[in-house]
TrEMBL record:
It comes from Biomphalaria pfeifferi. It holds the Pfam family TPGS1_C. Residues 69-256 form the Tubulin polyglutamylase complex subunit 1-like C-terminal domain. This is Tubulin polyglutamylase complex subunit 1. The lineage of its organism: Eukaryota, Metazoa, Spiralia, Lophotrochozoa, Mollusca. One of its GO terms (molecular function) is microtubule binding. Gene3D superfamilies: cAMP-dependent protein kinase regulatory subunit, dimerization-anchoring domain.
Length: 259
């Protein structure tokens, strides 16, 4: 099918007319839409529009290493790590990164690429905390990364992010005057309870139950109330950053050193 039109010189030219279906198939639109809808329904993100925007932004098939990392991080962050579909996303991201072109003949994920992923996942983590975490879980630049290491380190980053959010919320609760300063007694007591709760062993069911009890509202209120009645640190305060970093140190003390 063609349409006859005149060009700037007055000559008649024929312009091929593609059907709508031909146009869509030419640009691989049907398969792309099917893929993104499948992923959208599987992940059910909180912000579907943002999810779609990120998907199409990184839909190019010609990736540099940094682009592959961005694509992998997008896949990993498309759903919360507590959901079953996250395991599938982990595998997808690992396979994508394992196809990275390291040299003319070598493909795979090495420690340098692995570190880029961890840094991207921890972009909102305070710099001192991120540095301490990476010292524990990063690998040598030349080291080949197995799926088990990839999985455990990625999970650690996600759990740390959630832990930091909870720590920030706790500090907001302890900042009674809403002036960016929380009483030292309140903070130290809360941190001590946090330390107790993280001292439990996975194999010790009784300790796990006890750790949940230690951080429960009733227990925390009781312990803080007692500490306030014995308060000898009046006039001393914790800043927001100080509290969050100390809480992070408690968390990081439970993270195993890889090397």
């Amino acid at each position: 099918m063609a349409d006859r039109r005149k060009n700037l010189t007055g000559q008649t030219v024929e312009i091929a007319q593609e059907s709508e279906r031909q146009f869509m198939e030419k640009h691989n639109v049907p398969s792309m839409l099917k893929d993104v809808v499948t992923k959208l329904l599987a992940n059910r993100p909180v912000d579907p529009l943002s999810f779609l925007a990120n998907y199409f932004r990184s839909s190019s098939s010609d990736y540099r290493i940094d682009d592959i990392v961005m694509k992998a991080v997008q896949t990993l962050t498309s759903t919360h790590y507590s959901r079953p579909v996250f395991e599938t996303n982990l595998i997808t991201a690992f396979q994508l990164l394992s196809n990275s072109k390291l040299s003319k003949r070598l493909r795979g994920m090495n420690g340098a690429i692995h570190k880029q992923v961890l840094q991207a996942l921890c972009k909102d983590v305070p710099a001192p905390v991120q540095e301490k975490l990476l010292k524990k879980i990063e690998c040598f630049d030349h080291e080949a990364i197995s799926f088990s290491i990839f999985r455990s380190t990625v999970f650690t980053c996600f759990v740390l992010n959630d832990f930091l959010t909870l720590s920030k919320n706790l500090y907001t609760t302890l900042d009674l005057q809403r002036n960016g300063k929380a009483q030292k007694t309140l903070c130290q007591t809360s941190l001590q309870q946090l330390r107790k709760s993280l001292s439990s062993s996975k194999k010790d069911v009784h300790r796990i139950m006890e750790s949940s009890y230690n951080l429960g509202p009733d227990t925390l209120y009781s312990v803080i109330d007692k500490a306030m009645s014995e308060n000898t640190s009046q006039g001393e305060y914790y800043s927001h950053d100080q509290f969050v970093i100390e809480a992070s140190d408690i968390f990081l003390s439970k993270v195993k050193q890889l090397h």
